[in-house]
Predict the 3D structure of the following.
Amino acid sequence: MRRANRGAMVRDFRGQRLGTILLAIGAIDAGDDAHAALFARARDLPFGEACVRLGLAKEPAVVRALSLQTGAPSVSIGEFRPDDSLKRLLPGWLARRHRVLPLAHVAAGTGKGKLIVALSRPNDVALLDELAFVTGCRIAPVVAADSDLDQALIDVYGAAPFDARTRVDLGRGPGIDHVVARYF
């Protein structure tokens, strides 16, 4: 009996619409993509998140589809926690703001090397550029589920919703009138 060539059976989904990929891998049904697109536009959500919120697709399927779309590997964070050197390289305020978790740092002969980060939007070029600028490293994205990232970020960096530099404590200080006049 002859075996099928697995390489010939693999389809290249890079650059295709996420809805097309989710349909092809059987994660959503025909027509669900249009419904999710309307929901996403109305609520200013990414398409994959809209599919999960509507119950049309499971989060692992969306992560797999994003991985196929971008060509970036996917990862399950689970109990992984970065060491202190990685936390110093990627500050907490930036990690929490963009839902990004540093996974590894690969040193290079010149420069600061490559930083491997888990995120849920691997095709966000502006985000990748900002991370490269702040860290001084080349950024290698891997795709992770939002729920995994949220839990890991709380465990690693704490649950602070705001950066301490931008937080305004109205209980101690001149009051709301001064804050509004000065900052707005």
In short: Residues 1-9, 162-172 have pLDDT under 50 and may be disordered. The first strand starts at residue 100 and ends at 106.
